[in-house]
TrEMBL record:
Record note on quaternary structure: Homodimer.
Molecular-function GO terms, alphabetical: diaminopimelate epimerase activity
Native organism taxonomy: Bacteria, Bacillati, Bacillota, Negativicutes, Acidaminococcales
Class in the EC hierarchy, top level: isomerase
Coiled coil: none
Protein name: Diaminopimelate epimerase
């Protein structure tokens, strides 16, 4: 079977987008794993299927590079808005999107008939550890020292904040993102039993009161060049701890692949704003074994 796709990214967080309005892909997790391989596939952080919805204008299903399904994807939501508008699947410049993390509203900025910027109402940042979920004795884990097991079996401590943006995040502050141990420590925290559903991990450097930088280790995909839900978890943590940003105003949250803007509003309602880019369109032959019923 040949699969048509569009390669898109939001600040370097790149996914393979597939129009599934007429038919869902068989084994989307396995297809994600197959296409995401950087050297043997298309190369991406995962796969995003654009599907019909009976609750919203469209529905997103997103899969990480390791085949796991994610509940929410901030950059993916913005790219879907661009996809459906630019391809004429909608004429509305505000759409609703059903995700496993709830229904999100996306507002688009259109220039010369194309979407250049998209703003997503991301919903509430949640810190109740039972909801993250995090195995933790307190009701919240906000700027707390957490002990993880190192590869040598010895414990090491990372101070951080656990936040759910529909998916789990652990936000920790560092002096310099360039030298942060993103892979070594990110991988340990992602897979630690402290986070029973694994977690995304953000390493944050304060630049000034309106601007922070972060690097992210994503659950199921490793280090990516940006993460929309991660940027919201970072923005929320910076404002809540008084480290940067003001409630009700956009904070510049700079990822490795570009600049995102995040607002922490009333009731911790988060807004994410940033560019969405189409890279190219293509077609790929999927191996027969990926399409077998038994894999579904
Ligand atoms: N890159 C995404 C988040 C993707 C899902 C994440 N890896 C998870 O499994 O929770 C974003 O832009 O939010």
């Amino acid at each position: 079977m040949k699969m048509k796709f569009t390669k898109m990214h939001g600040c370097g967080n790149d996914y393979v987008y597939v129009d599934c309005m007429d038919r869902m892909l068989p084994n989307p997790g396995k297809i994600s794993e197959f296409v995401s391989r950087r050297r043997f596939g298309i190369g991406s952080d995962g796969l995003i299927c654009i599907c019909p919805s009976d609750k919203a204008d469209f529905r997103m299903r997103m899969f990480n590079a390791d085949a796991s399904e994610g509940k929410m994807c901030g950059n993916g939501s913005r790219c879907i808005a661009k996809y459906v508008y630019d391809k004429g699947l909608t004429r509305k410049d505000t759409i609703t999107l059903e995700t496993l993390g709830g229904i999100k509203t996306i507002h688009m900025t259109v220039e010369q008939g194309k979407v250049v910027l998209a703003e997503v109402d991301m919903g509430q940042a949640v810190v109740r550890t039972a909801d993250v979920p995090m195995d933790w004795p307190e009701e919240t884990c906000v700027d707390q020292p957490v002990v993880f097991a190192g590869p040598d079996g010895k414990g090491f401590t990372v101070r951080g904040t656990a936040v759910s943006m529909g998916n789990p995040h652990f936000v920790t502050f560092v002096e310099d993102v360039e030298t942060a141990p993103v892979e070594a420590v990110g991988r340990i925290i992602e897979t630690s039993p402290v986070f029973p559903e694994r977690t995304n991990v953000e390493f944050v450097q304060i630049v000034d009161e309106n601007h922070v930088k972060f690097r992210v280790w994503e659950r199921g995909s490793g280090e990516t060049w940006a993460c929309g839900t991660g940027a919201c978890a970072v923005g929320y943590t910076c404002v809540t701890l008084g480290k940067a940003g003001k409630r009700g105003e956009f904070l510049k949250v700079e990822a490795k692949g570009g600049m995102l803007q995040v607002r922490t509003g009333e009731g911790d309602a988060m807004t994410l704003k940033g560019p969405a880019t189409t890279v190219y369109e293509g077609e790929i032959e999927l191996p027969e074994e990926l399409l077998e019923e038994s894999l579904k």
